[in-house]
Amino acid sequence: MIKIKNLTKKFGNTVSLDSVSLEFNINDHIALMGPNGAGKTTLIRLILGYYHANSGDVSINDLSPIENRVDILKKVSFVPQLPPPIKLSINELLHYICTSTNINKELIYHYCKEMELDITQILNKSFFKLSGGMKQKLLISVSLAKNSEIMIYDEPTANLDPKARDNFYRLLKQNDKEKIMLFVTHRLEEVKNITNRQIYFDLGKVISDEKF
């Protein structure tokens, strides 16, 4: 369970989140929506322990994402909107991922194949030099292979072609049981068949929270 209570985050004089309170439970599959600057990505980064709140509290299974960040990240799969500028080769990156998280490399290969990414042809290439779509397919494949109880996707299909988007949501649908899923998205039509809750943010506040 993710509990968010009276959470406020400011950047200088700009209020990004304004006393937000929410709870996310197992089998909540949530679309986080709203205009740019509404606070969606800030919320995700607070959940992941990337930011310290100005006030309020975030807990995941009663643990603080700041104080217990290593333990929290073991339970989370996260795909950002902009892939990180990693300069390792794909082979080196996979070795690091698998040794640090105990993810099965063959399972990553499996999901790469499902995402129509021929990873065997790019093992010696730098992740940094891959196309945006290839980076996103690989990160999605890693997230699925990790099979975490909390899966967070920040505009995950921004660099994907329509077929890859279909593959992504097909694979998620096959792996959506007993999980919290959070999607930061502007494309409600894409996620409507996999989400059961829609939260709309504006100016750092929750404007609506609908379950269905």
Layout of secondary structure:
Blueprint: E1 2-11, E2 14-24, E3 29-33, H1 40-47, E4 55-60, H2 69-73, E5 76-79, H3 90-101, H4 105-114, H5 132-146, E6 150-154, H6 162-174, E7 180-184, H7 188-191, E8 197-202, E9 205-211
Parallel strand pairs: 3-7, 3-8, 5-6, 6-7
Antiparallel strand pairs: 1-2, 1-4, 8-9
Helix pairs in contact: 4-5
Short description:
The protein is of the alpha/beta class. The protein has 7 helices and 9 strands. Strand 1 and strand 2 form a beta hairpin.
What does this structure look like?
- This protein is α/β, with parallel strands linked by helices and 212 residues long.
- The chain contains seven helices and nine strands, in the order βββαβαβαααβαβαββ.
- The strands form two sheets. Strands 5-6-7-3-8-9 form a six-stranded mixed β-sheet, sandwiched between helices.
- α4 (105-114) crosses α5.
- The two termini are 19 Å apart.
Question: Can you give keywords for this protein?
Answer:
three-stranded antiparallel sheet; single chain; Rossmann fold; 7 helices; 32% helix; six-stranded mixed sheet; alpha/beta
Give the fraction of residues assigned to helices.
25-40%
Strand content: 25-35%
What overall form do the CA principal axes indicate? globular
The largest beta-sheet arranges its strands as: 5-6-7-3-8-9
Tally of individual helices: 7
The structure class reads alpha/beta
Alpha-carbon distance between the two ends: 19 Å
CATH class category = Alpha Beta
User: How many distinct beta strands?
Assistant: 9
What is CATH's topology name? Rossmann fold
Largest sheet: 6 strands, mixed
